[in-house]
Design brief:
mainly beta; globular; Immunoglobulin-like; 507 residues; four-stranded antiparallel β-sheet
């Protein structure tokens, strides 16, 4: 499919063509009711091209990956404090015997219930097909699985796991591979924390790949216990000239249902090409983005119900010179105010693809506000091309990365810096969140927050619970008898903090 190949080439240029040698400094830009701050400019030795979302850990710090750079040039795992102090925890590419650790991580990390982090590398490993790994908060990495372990290089267990993982209520991890599987259309898999892998679904199992092909994003665990995800192409409307893409539901045992096939409207005004995953909102619906399609052909934001009814909320490049952004590549995050926040890797007020990019807010009803346009500073020292999503930390601010920009150059040519880590404050207050966001009565739950020292009470939807303050950023508790689904509240000397999501009490 020529259009798919063109899109992949465009994406490759946008995500990968950044090489650099940079200075590390902090820059703040005051905007009306908001503050943008560059926390770190990568300099290749500490990593390059951070193109995955960050995760906030129970110690209050943020953890992430870079696609390149580091001691061996194969990417890194790093920790960064909210004030910008960076520690490189691991450098990929032959840090282990026979290079089994993989290289070039493109996905972010998740912190498991055991306190360790789990992630993927799309290539490398014992069989060169990518890996699943575990890494401790101090940086000890264990390769759990190397893809393409099946005979004759057929990769029936999957290949190119370029997306992140999600941990289910049973403690296992679930993810996707972009290629490989029985039909070479990608897979959905389950892997235990000990490394036992089970392939749950092989895409392109239906004639014409009407079930979708090549999932590029990870899964989201929904409140009903099922997983929801996307494929970047395929579906009922795909063809040699139409890429399409799908939204699907899959049960923990592997039963897949295609909920929506894109390009079902003339001109693909409903969108096409889904590189991003979904987020389930507090109203139960899912929200996501398409890389292309829409009224202007440059991407959309959509809402879809659990049963598959889709509503296009916004089509990008709706303003002069695409000052609102274009080609949204990653998904959204719902903030504590109920609105969604996201990024576009190009467009904005300052330049077009592949430079620039934006940070935006969109209401559940579809009203979009551009919050920041990158390359607002000379030489794009504030960063450019944010190809990763945002995370709202418990201090209320948003944190993210840009794949390019910074200061100086990493290598030959004129490509701008190796990328940045930034924060964006929009005036939202602190809150608490739980790890995990579900549990049975008696289960241990970690509550992550800010300034928790001196907390006097913890409650699960109004039911009091015993607790221990471990640190200013962490409380441990157990699900109390009588607890019901709802928000968790923590009373501190500075006020009462509520959780951003409802906690689910499992039977």
């Amino acid at each position: 499919m020529k259009r798919i190949a063109d899109a992949a080439g465009k994406l490759n240029r946008g995500k990968r063509a950044y090489a650099v040698l940079v200075l590390c400094a902090t820059t703040a830009v005051a905007l009306p009711a908001q503050t943008f701050t560059t926390l770190r400019r990568f300099d290749k030795t500490d990593g390059a091209i951070p193109d995955a979302a960050l995760v906030q850990a129970t110690n209050g710090d943020l953890y992430g990956t870079t696609y390149g750079g580091g001691a061996n040039g194969g990417g890194t795992v790093f920790k960064i404090t909210p004030s910008g102090g960076l520690t490189t925890l691991y450098s990929f590419l032959c840090s282990q015997t026979n290079c089994t650790d993989g290289l070039d991580p493109t996905a972010g990390l998740i912190q498991g219930t055991d306190g360790n982090f789990y992630g993927t590398t799309p290539i490398g490993g014992a069989n060169k097909g990518g890996t699943v790994f575990k890494i401790t908060p101090r940086g000890t990495l264990t390769t759990l699985y190397g893809f393409c372990s099946t005979p004759y290089g057929l990769c029936t267990d999957g290949e190119y796991p370029g997306a992140g993982l999600v941990q289910a209520t049973n403690g296992d991890l679930y993810g996707t591979t972009f290629e490989g599987g029985a039909n070479n259309g990608g897979t959905v898999f389950k892997i235990t924390p000990g490394g036992t892998l089970t392939t749950l679904y092989n895409f392109c199992a239906q004639s014409g790949c009407t079930d979708g092909v090549q999932p590029d994003a990870g899964l989201v665990l929904a409140a009903n216990g099922d997983f929801y995800g996307t494929t970047w192409a395929g579906g009922a409307n795909s063809s040699a000239s139409v890429a399409g893409g799908t939204v699907f539901k899959i049960t923990p045992s592997g039963t897949l249902t295609t909920l929506y096939s894109f390009c079902s409207e003339s001109g693909c005004t409903d969108g096409e090409l889904l590189f991003a995953g979904l987020v389930q909102a507090t109203n139960g619906d899912f929200y996501g983005t398409t890389y292309e399609g829409g009224v202007n052909g440059l991407g959309t934001i959509f809402k879809i119900t659990p049963s598959g009814t889709l509503t296009t909320l916004y089509s990008f490049c709706s303003r002069s010179a695409c000052s609102d952004g274009e080609y949204p590549y990653v998904g959204l995050v719902q903030a504590t105010n109920g609105d969604f926040y996201g990024t576009t890797p190009s467009g904005g007020a300052n330049c077009l693809y592949p430079c620039g990019g934006t940070l935006f807010k969109i209401t559940p009803g579809g009203t979009l506000t551009t919050l920041y346009s990158f390359c607002s500073q000379s030489g794009c020292t504030d960063g450019e091309s944010p190809v990763a999503g945002l995370v709202q930390a418990t201090d209320g601010d948003f944190y993210g990365t840009t794949a390019g920009g910074g200061a100086g150059h990493c290598s030959e040519g004129s490509d701008p810096g190796c990328g940045t880590v930034f924060s964006l404050s929009v005036g939202l207050g602190p809150f608490v969140k739980t790890t995990p966001a579900f549990g049975k009565v008696g289960a241990v739950v970690k509550i992550l927050g800010t300034n928790l020292t001196g907390a006097t009470s913890v409650s699960f939807n109004g039911t009091a619970a015993g607790f221990t303050v471990v640190s200013p950023s962490l409380i441990t508790t157990t699900v109390p008898v009588g607890a019901t689904n709802g928000t968790i509240q923590v009373t501190t000397p500075g006020g009462t903090l509520a959780s951003n999501l409802a906690f689910r009490v499992l039977p």
